[in-house]
Amino acid sequence: MWTVPTLFGVTLMVFSMVHLSPGDPAVAILGDKANAQSVKELRAQMGLDKPLYTQYFIYMSNISKGDFGKSATSYEPVLDEFLDRFPATIELASLAMIIATILGVTAGIISAIKRYSIFDYTSMFAALAGVSMPVFWLGLILIYFFSVKLGVLPVSGRLGYEFDIEHITGLYLVDSLLVKDYEAFWDALKHLILPAVALGTIPMAIIARMTRSSMIEVMKEEYIKTARAKGCSRFQVVAIHALRNALMPVVTIIGLMFGSLFAGSILTETTFSWPGIGKWLVNAVYQRDFPVIQSATLIIATVFIAINLIVDLLYAVINPKIRLS
Amino acid sequence: MREFIRQYKKNKSAVVGFFIVLILLTMAIFAPFIASHLPADQNLADRLIPPMWEEGGVVSHFLGTDDFGRDLFSRIIYGARISLMVGAVSVGMSLSFGLVMGLVAAFYGGKVDLFIMRIVDIMLAIPAILLAIVIVSILGPSLINAMIAIGIVGIPTYARVVRASVLAEREKEYVIASRINGSSNLRLMFKVILPNAASPIIVQSTMGFASAVLESAGLSFLGLGAQPPTPEWGAMLSDSLQFIMTAPWMIFYPGLAIFFTVLGFNLMGDGLMDVLDPKLKDK
To answer: Which ranges constitute the DSSP H helices of chain B?
Structure first.
């Protein structure tokens, strides 16, 4: 219910932050040595001479038409630049999340079943270490070991220069499979693996902790005792009776983290020179390209809010208790 | 207090966390006595010396030197001061604003609550690191601006924690008794309710310290926080990128320092949660 007003609030906040900040965007584009006349002309052209509320109104009406403005450095439409880079980030975030979910859920389940065992202590300490890990540092360590020392995985980029695959979806793994170029697929996967592991570390740690505590809670329930009393095997109890209920909160957290991975990828993409939206945004910050910063923030926040909303709705679908209330 | 210490000591990882933080504090306070060199002292004749135990290493540069011949160990020791300062300033800022917002929202309820919590929702709608980057890009890259950005980004989380904690206390009998006794709203909020709602806030502040250190290192790594030659760990990592093949020690040790600092505060926060607010555990 609050999605639209929240989104509206985000536009207002980002717009005011960018426009009330010190410094003149026209001077930033033209440089300090530009004469007053050309600055004035550019200000008029950019609409900066109008009152702030009028500028906001124009900005909003442009956004509603899908016009997010043009980059101050490349003069390309911001939306086009975003769409060019978005698949790279989606590909990275998705693989990171897949790795995090598989390993995190498995470790969490085993920890819960074998509570207070060596495995439990080790994996939970590893999970806490994972939450405390600076991803950019982990990325550098992975590059050092796997790329510099062992030379088995590439240092940066999305695909080797020798490959040229047709852009169908923009997701190189999918595109290479679609055109049946398996060597390119293997190369794309090799490029993807280190950044995905680095990006997936924190979600993996959170998922493992969440799965463990959720499983422990569920295993205490009466219906688990009933299942055991009926003579179900340990595997049946865990896999059929406990897991389904224990994974409810885990599914929510996975969804929510997927949204935040888009923002979290900023550091990972910079470390691995991954050409996604994170790196694009950081470059825009270096170049003080405010139209890109403003719109990129808004688009990422929209994606983030949309994912959260979808998670909420999905949760209601899979959890009858919520649906009924 | 004795009971608190006894309970805290039971949690081994919390004790480890406490000692990590203690070491960090010692490093920060006694940096001039522990460090063998000044953090900005350059000596180009000594550039890129490896750690003592590697071939070519020297005892006077225990962890080696960087590309300007600065002693890495000394820079890491002095870096503890910066990290602790960033944590303290950012958490202080988030906490003071978040505390007032959460307290007022929960105490007055109704439209005031709705208004404040909508602002909180809007701030939370933008992922933390992204919002921090936007704020720094507007204010300009510097350590102070990074601290301000991290401080602002943390406000909504604290506001939520304080609000939830105060809501749980607001209708309790001792509050009603104090109200009947004629306590003013200010007294009710800060003297009566707040001390009883403090546990989750203390836990959040400890954990918040960890994320502030991590975020500040991240911003500095991107070149948006501390600027050279400040011995900030994230900035040191950023400087070392081009030396990953020739001088990997420049990458290992500053990163380890960040990792242990964040881990220390997280472990401590976990331990405090166990003792102060067991209900929150595992949530």
So the answer is: 2-10, 12-29, 31-34, 72-108, 110-125, 128-139, 143-170, 173-180, 185-187, 194-196, 198-221, 233-240, 249-276
Does B270 contact chain A (CB < 8 Å)? Answer: yes
User: Tokens at residue A160, please?
Assistant: 């080797």
Any CB–CB contact under 8 A between B149 and chain A? Answer: no
What's the CA gap between A200 and B241, in Å, rounded? Answer: 22
Which amino acid, residue A2?
W
Interface test with A, best of B130, B145, B214, B267 (most A CBs within 10 A): B130
- Helices B72-108 and B233-240 cross at an angle (nearest 10°) of 130
pTM comes to 0.89
The answer to whether the CB atoms of A134 and B234 lie below 8 A apart is: yes
List pLDDT tens digits, range A96-131. 999 999 999 999 999 998 988 999 989 988 898 898
User: Which DSSP helix (H) or strand (E) runs through A179?
Assistant: none
Cβ pair B129:A216 closer than 8 A: no
- Which residues contact residue A18 at a Cβ distance below 8 angstroms, ignoring those fewer than 6 apart? A290, A293, A294, B134, B138
For residue A288, give the DSSP letter.
T
Is the Cβ pair B125, A259 closer than 8 Å? no
CB contact at 8 A, A172 and A189: no
Q: Which residues on neighbouring strands pair with residue A70, listed in sequence order? A: A77
Chain B residues in contact with A140 (beta carbon < 8 A): 237, 241, 244, 251, 255
Single out the residue of B24, B131, B19 nearest to residue A266, CA to CA: B131
Closest C-alpha among A152, A156, A184 to residue A268? A156
Contact yes or no for A132 and B214 at CB 8 A? yes
Whole-angstrom distance, CA of residue A142 vs CA of residue A149 = 10
ipTM exceeding 0.85, yes/no: yes
Chain A residues with beta carbon closer than 8 angstroms to that of B156: none
Contact criterion met (CB below 8 Å) for B143 and B230: yes
User: Of chain B residues 198-217, which have a CB less than 8 A from chain A?
Assistant: 210, 214, 217
Chain B residue with the nearest C-alpha to that of A151: B245
pLDDT of residue A319: 67
A270 to B222: CB separation less than 8 angstroms, yes or no: yes
Cβ atoms A259, A314 nearer than 8 A:
no
pLDDT tens across A139-172, in order?
999 999 999 999 999 988 888 888 888 888 889 8
